[in-house]
Design a protein that fits this description.
Blueprint: E1 2-10, H1 13-18, E2 24-31, E3 35-43, H2 50-70, H3 83-108, E4 117-125, E5 128-134, E6 138-143, E7 149-150, H4 171-174, E8 176-180, E9 184-190, H5 195-198, E10 199-200, E11 205-206, H6 208-220, H7 229-234, H8 237-240, E12 247-255
Helix pairs in contact: 2-3
């Protein structure tokens, strides 16, 4: 029994046409086989160095979780977190992330807002998941014998194309946190580039025909980290005809066989 993981980032056609680098970044960490941590960030289009910010943010998050695992509190995730405990863990990590962003900005002599990005993070075991979100994008899960569930309604702000970023004044205060103590089967994390094809925006429900083939792919793939299915999917003409934004997918399946 172990986690099967696949994921990639793809530059949007609008950024390709403008010569702008991909501003998304995502990665994951597996601790002791059964604990997985994932993080996905989407750099703000208005921020000059948001591609740097998104990568730095994700790397910092994963390092923080790695440090927790190496500390005397290394059994911290052996039991489900309460929502209050999860809020404290995520708030502490977010403050460290903000510190690292400020340090980067000071070293390069630019504003910390030039590193602005959204952020989605989760830590999960086969029996529970704790997750947080700052800004838009989505985390969809499927627990054992249940339907796909959207954990958070994306933060879209008051105006079109507005959202909260990790560098926003009230980022930690506005952070959404959820804990689900159910046996986990499938986790999907994505930036907002895929919202319009994966989430029914009329009622913010996951669109099952988007997620089912991805879950089936993980079930069937022997080594999803090595094949190019997700890369080809994200760069497909069919998908690019529906969204021109950068796209990131991080897919996780706990294989109980």
């Amino acid at each position: 029994m172990n986690w099967k993981v696949a994921g990639d980032c793809a530059i949007g056609t609008s950024h390709q046409n403008q010569g702008i680098p991909c501003q998304d970044y995502g990665d994951y960490l597996i601790i002791k086989d059964e604990i997985i941590v994932g993080a996905v960030a989407d750099g703000a289009g208005s921020a000059k160095h948001s591609n740097v910010g998104s990568k730095l943010v994700v790397e910092t998050v994963l390092k923080c979780f790695s440090d927790i695992n190496e500390s005397p509190q290394k059994e911290a995730f052996s039991q489900p977190l309460s929502k209050e405990e999860a809020e404290k863990v995520f708030a502490k990590i977010m403050n460290q992330v903000i510190t690292e962003l400020q340090k980067q900005a000071d070293e390069e002599d630019y504003s910390v807002n030039d590193l602005a990005c959204t952020l989605l993070v989760f830590v999960a075991t086969p029996d529970w998941i704790a997750a947080m979100q700052i800004g838009d994008g989505f985390i969809v899960i499927r627990s054992q014998e249940s339907e796909y569930k959207l954990l958070f309604k994306p933060d879209k702000g008051e105006f079109i194309n507005e959202t909260t970023f990790i560098t926003s004044t009230n980022a930690v205060k506005d952070m959404q946190v959820e804990v689900i103590s159910e046996k986990q089967e499938f986790i999907c994390v994505s930036t907002d580039g895929l919202e319009k094809v994966a989430i029914r925006l009329s009622d913010w429900k996951p669109f099952s025909p988007f997620f089912k083939p991805l879950e089936e792919y993980l079930h069937e793939s022997v080594n999803p980290k090595e094949d190019k299915y997700i890369t080809e999917f994200l760069n497909s003409e069919r998908l690019n005809s529906r969204t021109d934004d950068d796209k990131t997918l991080l897919l996780c399946l706990f294989d109980r066989e």
